[in-house]
Amino acid sequence: MDERLITAVSSFPVLFDASLHIYRDNVKKGDAWKKVVEIVGASEVQEKWKNLSDQYRRERNRERERSKSGSGGAVQKPWRYSQIMSFLNPFLDSRLTSTNLSLPSSSQSSEGQMSQIIDSPYRLPLAKRAEAKLRIHQIMFEMEFSE
After folding, report:
1. What's any one GO cellular component for it (predicted)?
2. Nearest to 88 by CA among 123, 107, 61, 119
3. Domain residue extents for the chain
4. How far is CA 72 from the centre of its chain?
5. 3-state secondary structure at position 50
């Protein structure tokens, strides 16, 4: 039944393609779901489709996580409906996002850079670290109290 449901839904883009102008038309969606019920021959297809599409989304995200660089581990068998549901891929891709947060001002970023410079000697051997800290503090003192 699951495969019949997936193929039936795939022939009605109004049920999954949010870029269509009729996607928000509940009457057209209702008609499409009625046709899917006729094709599949079962009720509760909307709930079943929701479960299948959610599972596909989760499996796709897991696959992306597994394929990241440096993530070794066992090879897992793909979900059994991954291939047949791949028609959803263009509609599941991440959208560009934006933010209303502003970038830090130059004084804040320079303070952050300075703290990074001061913290960086910790990667040096102990003797070099002490010498680097002393020089950094001397430079900071000169900059702060000169003129």
Report:
1. nucleus
2. 61
3. 2-67+78-92, 106-145
4. 20
5. helix
